[in-house]
Amino acid sequence: MAWIALTIAGLFEVVWAYTMKLSEGFSRPLMTAVTLVAMLISFGLLSWAMRSLPLGTAYTVWTGIGAVGAFLVGILVLGEAASPMRICAAILIVSGLVLMKLSSPG
């Protein structure tokens, strides 16, 4: 269950990163509110997952999901560049996440 919560927390990290971009420096109230709510959910689920998962594993997976998710949103939604080096970096991050999962109990 902790892994499910951690995965959802990571997805909410992607949401808040994206809506933070859309908030234009917190100048758009609706996007600012969505950002803050998504942050609370993300941090809350991360905190809950850390009850049973090691700190290093939980935090690394959470930030990794956020980083790769934000990378994909940037490319697919915002039209950012998808250079071979950026794609390789994302693959390395995902590989690290898989290794963290395989090396952790629970």
List keywords for this structure.
106 residues; mainly alpha; 78% helix; 4 helices
Give the SSE layout.
Layout: H1 2-22, H2 29-49, H3 55-76, H4 84-102
Query: pLDDT below 50 for ≥5 consecutive residues: which ranges?
Result: none
Q: Report the structural category.
A: mainly alpha
**Count of separate DSSP helical elements:** 4
General shape: flat
Average predicted local confidence, pLDDT: 94
Spatial separation of the terminal alpha carbons: 9 Å
How much β-strand is present in the residues? under 5%
| Helix and strand element order | HHHH
How many β-strand runs? Answer: 0
Q: What summary fits the major beta sheet?
A: none
Using only C-alpha atoms, the radius of gyration works out to 15 Å
Q: How many structural domains in the coordinates?
A: 1
> Helical percent range?
over 70%
Organism: Phenylobacterium kunshanense
InterPro entries: EmrE-like, Small_drug/metabolite_transptr, Small_multidrug_res
Family: Belongs to the drug/metabolite transporter (DMT) superfamily. Small multidrug resistance (SMR) (TC 2.A.7.1) family. Gdx/SugE subfamily.
Keywords: Cell membrane, Membrane, Transmembrane, Transmembrane helix, Transport
